[in-house]
Give the backbone structure.
Amino acid sequence: MIVAIDGPAGAGKSTVARAAARALGFQYLDTGAMYRAAGLAADPVSADIRLEDGRVLLDGRDVTADIRTNEAGERASVVAARPEVREAMVAKQRAIMAAGDWVAEGRDIGTVVAPDARLKVFLTASPRERARRRAAELGTDVATVLADQTLRDERDRTRAASPLQAAPDAVELDTTGLSIDEVVARIGALVPS
């Protein structure tokens, strides 16, 4: 079974998906980490990107810390707009999820990567809340993150290849003001038995 969690930057996808996978006993696929690694690659289409034991490997090099910078996020958004990169990444993600139970998060899991997922959730939060969360994570100011986030949201929504949008059958869940445990509980209640 696949649980697809999509949404914009800062909505809590990674944190919630990781916690939901743990709560459900599923495996977790961090597609954002894959795109961030691709953004650091000399050739993002042919890059060897692996997720192993909580680490992100790019062509055999551990880039786990490198991908969590604001610059890596920006580069990921740029390379993710390239159709040939998206095609290569979608193929890798589908291969990873071909067997077993997964919680996968990203921008197009429910619409492109796993359109047949049993549960699709589109996480949202107010722009200010999303910027506050990301600023706390990065140790920077909210205003800068909000400005960058606004540009990234627009680029993600308007790109030709797999634009950010909720799948028609996704459950929209606004995480503003909710704890991680509350969001995970709501997702858990939605998982079909």
About this structure: The first strand starts at residue 2 and ends at 6. The first helix runs from residue 13 to 24. The chain has one domain: 2-188.
